[in-house]
Design brief:
single chain, about 375 residues, 7 helices, about 40% strand, globular, alpha+beta
Length: about 375
């Protein structure tokens, strides 16, 4: 078989070294080189115009998958030390300010009262200036629950610890702009073209700008080039004022006739507490203590001149007592792990993808302390 070139143009984030069987020796060597090297991120990350710039994909991958970023104190200190503010940090600030305002406006009332009941009592219902600012900008979105309560989330659900307020991130010589329904890529790394990147709506190869639609904005009717594996967010309640959930989200799709494939795969756990009809992450409710997981994935590629090639990778451990994803927190109310495969994949011509990546045989569980039995375990199969 003719040797191929295999590039990863966005981090293929992994929490383990996968065992991958390739028919091409060169592909095997490339992947081993990417996975087995270790690089210290010190001096390999800098900030220019409020945007993080990672020296290369390897540095970004190691930073993206660093479990320490699940700790808010670590995130804040890390950002402060290099002079960077992420969208996740903005969310944390909004959450804090909203809690302060609620205590000020509603503090003398019973926490079990709903927003409607407070309004009926003549209480002023409102939000902070920072909340309204980023809601208008679209950085956050509001959620209305079935019982009339409210919550809010970041609109962007990818790389939120590393993109700035505008959704910008740079890796090596490539600039990425993450938006709600698309990812824009500037391949020449020209910082002077960022405003042009924001304005460009469709791919323009002459400008070195590529616009990739996210899976939620694709026309999925009759489209065999996408795959989505989702454990939908299903909140479980510990009484009427506490809730927790685990989300396993995965999607992949092909574009540019199979030359590129976008994959998103992560595990997310949340725990929130309700006061006066609004759900928030609060320091007095941090029940998450442990997550575990196993999974496999596969995809196929073809050479337009001769043949096809099937790829299978396993994250399953040979010893069931040693899970490839195993992390103990102690106490937390939010965590997110990017899993392999994640990122934008590209095969060099004449190779292309025949199908989007499929993740199967996955098993995840998360443990939350609380309730009459001492702990709750959520399992996803």
């Amino acid at each position: 078989m003719k040797k191929t070139k295999f590039y990863i143009i966005t981090a293929i984030a992994g929490l383990l070294i996968s065992i991958i069987f390739f028919n091409s020796c060169q592909k095997e060597e490339i992947l081993k080189t990417q996975e087995q090297k270790t690089v210290s991120p010190q001096n390999n990350i800098r900030v220019v115009k409020g945007m993080l710039i990672f020296k290369n994909q390897q540095v970004f991958q190691q930073t993206l998958t660093n479990p320490k970023f699940n700790n808010r104190i670590f995130r804040e200190e890390w950002g402060k030390n290099i002079g960077f503010t992420s969208q996740a940090s903005i969310y944390d600030k909004i959450n804090d300010e909203e809690i302060k305002l609620e205590n000020k406006l509603f503090g003398k009332y019973d926490e079990n009262l709903s927003l409607k009941e407070l309004s009926d009592l003549g209480v002023k219902i409102g939000h902070t200036e920072i909340y309204n600012k980023y809601l208008k900008k679209g950085l956050i979105k509001e959620n209305k629950e079935t019982d009339g309560s409210q919550s809010f989330d970041l609109t962007l659900k990818e790389n939120e610890n590393f993109v700035n307020e505008d959704g910008l991130l740079m890796i090596d010589s490539v600039i990425y702009l993450y938006q709600k329904n698309e990812i824009k890529i500037l391949t020449d790394g020209n910082l002077g073209k960022i405003d042009l990147l924001k304005k460009t709506q469709t791919t323009n190869k002459k400008l070195n700008i590529y616009v990739l639609k996210t899976i939620n904005s694709l026309n999925k009717s009759g489209n065999t080039n996408y795959n989505e594996w989702v454990n939908k967010k299903d909140w479980k309640h510990d009484g009427s004022k506490k809730r927790y959930c685990m989300v396993v989200y995965g999607s992949s799709y092909l574009y540019m006739d199979g030359m590129y494939m976008k994959s998103t795969f992560y595990l997310e756990c949340k725990a929130q507490k309700k006061s006066w009809g609004r759900w928030k992450y609060k320091n007095n409710y941090m029940p998450l203590c442990q997550v575990d997981g196993n999974w496999t994935y596969w995809y196929t590629v073809e050479n337009e001149n001769c043949c096809s090639d099937w790829h299978y990778a396993t994250a399953l451990s040979d010893n069931d007592s040693k899970s490839p994803l195993h992390y103990y927190f102690g106490h937390s109310n939010y965590t997110k792990f990017y899993l392999k495969p994640n990122g934008v994949w590209h095969y060099g011509s004449p190779w292309r993808f025949m199908n989007s990546i499929h993740v199967n045989q996955f098993y995840f569980n998360s443990t939350f302390w609380g309730g009459s039995h001492g702990r709750h375990i959520i399992v996803s199969k």
